[in-house]
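Please, structure for the following, as tokens.
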Amino acid sequence: MDARHFLGIEPTDDPLHWRLPVTGAVSTPGRFLFGGCGLAAGIVALEAAAGQPAVWATAQYLAHAPTGSDLDLHVTLAAQGRRTTQARAVAHLGDREILTVNAALGHQPAPDIDDQSWVDAPDVPPPAACPEREWFPFPEETVFHRVEQRLAVGRLLSQIDGTPGAARSASWFRVPGHLEPSAATLAVLGDYVTGGMSQALGFHTMSRSLDNTIRVVRLVPTEWVLSDIVVYATAGGFAHGRAHLFAEDGTFLASASQSMSVRRWSDEQFRAMRAAAAAGGPEPAGGA
């Protein structure tokens, strides 16, 4: 299974026009499109139109696309050079713009600089030695059901007790059946930066992404991807952070970054969410 099939994005007769059904499989528990899946869909459309791999892509989220809707993505190849293409994909729901993805795509057929990396993977246990991340038992399928996550550094959901923690956390991720990472796959995993907020603050938060940026370094086959998350700061109800993504052998795959709005979940809201999930009732908006 590749990213196109994971997302369910569909080509049309126009190579610059794609359609993304917003199913539960690409949605948050709040029943709207998961931001990382929106960025990933834009990357799939842009790479297909340009015929080149993505080097950098960023999404600005303007509005929510509810589960059950269909997004239309239109690609513009704004500048095409011999080695690099600058392009954008704009997703609409009817007449309403939902998100915009800007990207640079290309490759150097014979680069005269050797590949080098000055970013090292943190020393963490392998995936099999890490506990599975705890999730609420939501009755309907979400993107979180399809991505397996194991906590390598940090606290489980039940261990968030009001005590401030560290700004750095790390998790292993894999998409069963999707073994070779792509820029689109890494864009989905990069959207988990929001999960670092509760780790640092020490209480449960609801974070909504304002943007999501992925910078692709190198793609190598790997079953698991390690996300090394660092939260930078909070100010005025907003927060900023990044994730470095690594293969199991330590290869630096990509860097992701996000800005987000952050709100505290009160104890009452948290208990209500657990009760709603356990009872199979309506799902509140997702958080971390």
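The chain has two domains: 1-106+141-146, 148-278. Residues 126 and 152 are 8 Å apart (CA to CA).
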